[in-house]
UniProtKB/TrEMBL annotation:
Keyword Signal among UniProt keywords: yes
Pfam families: IGFBP, TSP1_CCN, VWC
Compartmental location: Secreted
Keyword annotations: Disulfide bond, Secreted, Signal
GO terms, molecular function: heparin binding; integrin binding
Protein family (similarity comment): Belongs to the CCN family.
Domain IGFBP N-terminal: 1-75
PANTHER family, sorted: CCN FAMILY MEMBER 5, CONNECTIVE TISSUE GROWTH FACTOR-RELATED
Protein name: WISP2 protein
GO cellular component, one term: extracellular space
Organism: Calcarius ornatus (Chestnut-collared longspur)
PROSITE patterns, per the entry: IGFBP_N_1 (PS00222), IGFBP_N_2 (PS51323), TSP1 (PS50092), VWFC_1 (PS01208), VWFC_2 (PS50184)
Length: 225
């Protein structure tokens, strides 16, 4: 019945097919009549405006009011995870920003920092080190304040067993396992102790983690008068 109302025969399609944004292929509409741009993840959809099936997307009506369109979502959304309003597939590695990299796994996600979190202590050649944001670069860098504020060489993380320019002896890598997530659901953090820094000193490192989404709170019952 819906097809009879929305699909007209014969087809009347635009002479020139639409120009689709990058990553959105041309596909037949829900009536199998005209070429349309396939809807991408998170975009609105309905019977005529179909989702990109080559990406495993279907039109999800579960959270839409009755009689309205849906949203393009993965067919099996239970094994995905949502970060900042965007959905990622299970096993997908993504970067919410240039400073952090995350991994979606079993409905939750873990993140590790991409910027080094080392500690720079004063030294004879750099008595006043300071960490600053450098225009055009994602990660902050150490500079020697008072020495024309030139960035220090990026030698903060030496290879296992190598000699750091600040050390005169090898630094065998050592560290503890990552601790359990500090939260049972939602966003938390895990920590460990490691010596992989320019001074081969033990320091606490942290990374974000999320065991899974928190269950929705039950709706409050109306108070009867």
């Amino acid at each position: 019945q819906v097809c009879a109302q929305l699909c007209r025969r014969p087809c009347y399609c635009p002479w020139v097919p639409p120009r689709c944004p990058r990553g959105s292929p041309l596909v037949l509409d829900g009536c199998g009549c005209c070429k349309v741009c396939a809807r991408r993840l998170g975009e609105p959809c309905d019977f005529l405006h179909v989702c990109d099936q080559s990406q495993g997307l279907v039109c999800d009506y579960s959270s839409a009011p009755a009689g309205t369109g849906g949203t393009c979502n993965f067919e099996d959304d239970e094994e995905g995870c949502e970060v900042n309003g965007r959905l990622y597939r299970d096993g997908e590695v993504f970067q919410p920003s240039c400073k952090i990299q995350c991994h979606c796994l079993d409905g939750g996600f873990t993140c590790i920092p991409l910027c080094q979190e080392d500690v720079r202590l004063p030294s004879p050649d750099c008595p006043f080190p300071r960490r600053v944001e450098i225009p055009g670069k994602c990660c902050p860098e150490w500079i020697c304040e008072g020495a024309q504020e030139q960035p220090l060489p990026r030698d903060a993380r030496a290879a296992p067993g190598a000699v750091s320019p600040l050390l005169r002896y090898p630094c065998p890598p050592w560290g503890t396992e990552w601790s359990a997530c500090s939260a049972t659901c939602g966003l938390g953090f895990a920590s460990r102790v490691s010596n992989q820094n320019r001074l081969c000193r033990l320091e606490t490192q942290r990374r974000l983690c999320s065991p899974g989404p928190c269950p929705a709170l039950p709706a409050a019952l109306p108070v009867s008068g």
